[in-house]
Amino acid sequence: MSAKTASGPTEDQVEILEYNFNKVNKHPDPTTLCLIAAEAGLTEEETQKWFKQRLAQWRRSEGLPSECRSVTD
Questions:
Q1: pTM
Q2: Which of its termini does the chain have fewer beta carbons within 10 Å around, N or C?
Q3: Contact 36/19 with Cβ under 8 angstroms?
Q4: Where are the domains of the chain?
Q5: PANTHER family, from UniProt (predicted)?
Q6: 14: closest CA among 67, 73, 57, 70?
Q7: 12-16, 21-25, 61-65, 69-73 — which is least confidently predicted?
Q8: pLDDT, tens digit, for every residue of 7-59?
Q9: Cα 68 versus chain centre, distance
Q10: Which fold has domain 11-46?
């Protein structure tokens, strides 16, 4: 099985994304997102999409709604 699939980042790219998600920021600002994308060799759109999906996954694992609209939800 190949690490790179047509629908997602390679294993190395995921490692970079996961590191930034867990150690740097779960909600990167546009500048940080651009730097992460450059480091991983992905487009900003791909990187933003990955962070959005990963954040939803993390929220579910924490027992939170996948999208948070307000503190009172």
A1: 0.75
A2: N
A3: no
A4: 11-46
A5: HOMEODOMAIN-ONLY PROTEIN
A6: 57
A7: 69-73
A8: 678 999 999 999 999 998 888 999 999 999 999 999 999 999 999 999 999 98
A9: 16
A10: Arc Repressor Mutant, subunit A (1.10.10)
Start-to-end CA span in the chain (Å): 41
CA max distance for the chain: 44
Query: Nearest to residue 55, comparing CAs of 32, 18, 26, 13?
Result: 26
| Number of neighbours of residue 39 by Cβ within 10 angstroms | 14
* C-alpha pair distances (Å), 44 with each of 29, 32, 52: 11, 10, 12
Q: Is 38 helix (H, G, I), strand (E, B) or coil?
A: helix
CA–CA distance, 14 with 71 (Å, rounded to integer): 30
